[in-house]
């Protein structure tokens, strides 16, 4: 079932099993034709030229073609109808039949294959529900970056069991894929203004709007104030419009979503919903975080990409069904690859980061969403990391120190996975490191979406073995493991 491979004196075990991407799994996205009002109205008017019998016949034909591909296709059509409902004349809106609503919704729907191009950069954490798991085994949740048409990345999940011997068995994957319902989130007025300041987008217009809102406000309240100012302008119109756009864009980047209770975890797809994420949700690094009151919450850092710029984000959940997304803030939130430690250290949150594209940094903060300063803890020093260094997910706590997998980039942009050890009480101090890569692409792993890359976004310890799900050529995930004690013993101490 597995092959034994030697990395220096380390016994790194690669499982033969790989996680295959499934091109048959599709979600439904709104198809709004660029938001062109004239085109939307024209399409709707053509549908209204059909009589009721024709409408029902056409809807029945559409349902026959697509109902087996989606659990809730009628609900999806109704939801997409609501997105264009405002383009209907009032008299039509008041008398439209359910069949016509769903048919209109179908014309503004498109299928999207979430992982047609690639499935990669996995992260693994213990499942929040360990009930019924055989002693010595552990249920897990694994997240992936899925890439489809247009190189748009979304966040998907799988679950399974880590067996006593360290092998992983996956639960059957659902043939369905669904996006969540977006909820109406609330915002802290003071924090909202601080983020606008940090973005250089705060001015007298945004200050005026925020002054009219309560200390905790929601998206609908923000939109009401924007609409009110649109109808009663106090400032130059073009400046108002730019300000409205900036405020709504920030609000859309901080949101809440929820999946149905009866949905399987492999069905849940978090697809970009905000303008900041329009180019993709990239490289989520999940960690099981132990709170000071003994509770558990899962945090995931990821990169929101709009096609031109990036925005570091934090996603949080307790059950992998309800999620909240918030923007990370502060002078030290600049680049990709943030990785949160699994608990506070000396009363502070701690996070690894890459500020400058080259070095590994560490940050400390009293507030989990605000990071002002960073410190370099590791610089490129080996041939396989001369181009850049970064972390490969959240640190794992051991008796010897914080175990951190790193990625290094060498000649011909070849990615390898290394490892360092940080002091338990002072994680800004590196106390050990591997002289050679722990994992590098073997010949059969070199070709794919992005060649010569092995990469992971998170690991887990089980029965003294470090379980490493990793991406092969940014195309599909594979699995490896190594004894933790052997890994630490192989490090050069500093």
Describe this structure in words.
Helices cover 22% and strands 35% of the residues. Residues 1-8 have low confidence and may be disordered. The protein is of the alpha+beta class and 494 residues long. The two termini are 37 Å apart. The chain contains ten helices and 32 strands. Strands 22, 23, 24, 25, 26, 27 and 32 form a seven-stranded antiparallel sheet that branches. Strands 1, 2, 28, 29, 30 and 31 form a six-stranded antiparallel sheet that branches. It has a six-stranded antiparallel sheet with strand order 9-12-17-16-15-14. α3 crosses α5 and α8 packs antiparallel against α9 (237-252).
Give the % helix: 10-25%
The total count of helices amounts to 10
Shape: globular
The percent range for strand residues is 35-45%
- How many strands appear in the DSSP assignment? 32
Regions with little confidence, pLDDT below 50 for 5+ residues:
1-8
User: Cα distance, first to last residue?
Assistant: 37 Å
Q: Any idea what the radius of gyration is?
A: 25 Å
Task: Break the fold down into its secondary structure elements and pairings.
Elements: E1 2-7, E2 10-18, E3 26-30, H1 37-48, H2 52-66, H3 73-84, H4 90-95, H5 98-107, E4 109-113, E5 118-126, E6 138-147, E7 153-162, E8 168-170, E9 181-183, E10 186-188, H6 189-199, H7 204-211, E11 216-218, H8 219-231, H9 237-252, E12 255-258, E13 269-270, E14 280-290, E15 296-305, E16 310-317, E17 322-327, E18 339-340, E19 349-353, E20 360-365, E21 375-378, E22 388-391, E23 396-397, E24 402-409, E25 415-422, E26 430-433, E27 439-440, E28 454-455, E29 460-462, E30 465-472, E31 476-483, H10 484-489, E32 492-493
Antiparallel strand pairs: 1-2, 2-31, 3-4, 5-6, 6-7, 7-8, 7-13, 9-12, 10-11, 12-17, 14-15, 15-16, 16-17, 18-19, 19-20, 20-21, 22-24, 23-24, 24-25, 25-26, 25-27, 26-32, 28-30, 29-30, 30-31
Helix pairs in contact: 1-5, 2-5, 3-5, 8-9
